[in-house]
Write a structure and sequence with these properties.
Elements (H helix, E strand, L loop, with lengths): L4 E9 L3 E2 L4 E2 L3 E13 L2 H8 L6 E6 L9 E4 L2 E10 L4 E7 L5
Antiparallel strand pairs: 1-4, 1-6, 2-3, 4-5, 5-8, 6-7, 7-8
Length: 103
Amino acid sequence: MRFDVPVYFQRIQPGEYDESSGDYGPDSVSEDMRYANVTDAGTETLKLVYGEIRQGCKVIRLQTYYDKVFDRIRIGERVYRVDFSRRLRVKQVFIVSEVQGCR
């Protein structure tokens, strides 16, 4: 099992409120990169987690725990949200689904 795919854990900071214009500024995104083993989720895993077959779901395996707070995960240009997480003895597993419309 190779842990060779860069995975970016993203933390989103909402933009500041501007009283003069009444609008909020753009959100800022900070990223923390880790290498992981990323595969497509199998049929049995999808049925167990979602109760149905979904497309765009992945399984992310880390060799160590990721304990920092994060909002979403980016792999390449695609953004994912965590639907299920499990901590094993020394590894951590995330089952994620793709978020539409985020870049």
